[in-house]
User: Which sequence fits this backbone?
């Protein structure tokens, strides 16, 4: 068996505030050959623009609880104290079977759970360029009430303060450039891989070390 055959597929975690452009950048990552998307399960109703089974598997709360009780989820969490979201374990099993790298689009709660179970997962945080721009994007979608928008902005502030838990930070002020960056991270992460039986520990990403020592660079625009 070659080293390439021995290596397990990577898991990529993509998180960021609602309105940061996660889904667009995840689509860019999926353009890289050898990747597949993990379809999340959720109890929220589908939006008019959403097709069931493409980005989300829409299920009842009762069915979600049954699956959670059986241990079917790699991670799950309740968002805004209302709807449940979860990553099915079968997605990881399918990726391993097919030899594909798995891309998860999940929130910071779910990301924390996945990193505890899969420490080698590569975590990417998507940051909007400014609070004003994030608010403009949320209002431009025309999907939320004023109360919901303010709730999302408040949650965004909480999520952004956890960016140092991630390996990479991508500021989505230019979608084409940000798309190239997430694709570059996808390819570069593969080059950093270590055979499973190696006694060496994976070295920390330089970007993570930089972020841990320069929080003001990215959070200065966000009111505390």
Assistant:
């Amino acid at each position: 068996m070659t080293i390439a055959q021995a290596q397990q597929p990577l898991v990529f975690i993509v998180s960021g505030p609602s309105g940061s452009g996660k889904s667009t950048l995840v689509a860019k990552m999926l353009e890289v050959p050898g990747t597949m998307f993990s379809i999340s399960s959720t109890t929220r109703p589908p939006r008019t623009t959403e097709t069931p089974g493409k980005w989300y598997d829409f299920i009842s709360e009762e069915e979600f609880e049954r699956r959670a009780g059986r241990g079917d989820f790699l991670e799950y969490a309740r968002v805004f104290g209302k709807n449940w979201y979860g990553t099915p374990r079968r997605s990881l099993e399918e990726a391993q079977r097919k030899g594909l790298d798995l891309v998860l689009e999940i929130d910071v709660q779910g990301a924390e759970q996945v990193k505890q179970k899969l420490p080698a997962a590569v975590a990417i945080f998507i940051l909007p360029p400014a609070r004003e721009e994030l608010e403009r994007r949320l209002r431009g979608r025309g999907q939320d009430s004023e109360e919901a928008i303010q709730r999302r902005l408040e949650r965004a502030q909480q999520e952004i303060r956890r960016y140092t838990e991630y390996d990479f930070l991508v500021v989505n002020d230019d979608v084409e450039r940000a798309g190239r960056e997430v694709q570059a991270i996808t390819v570069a992460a593969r080059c950093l891989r270590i055979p499973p039986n190696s006694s060496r520990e994976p070295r920390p990403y330089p970007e993570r070390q930089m972020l841990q020592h320069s929080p003001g660079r990215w959070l200065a625009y966000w009111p505390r």
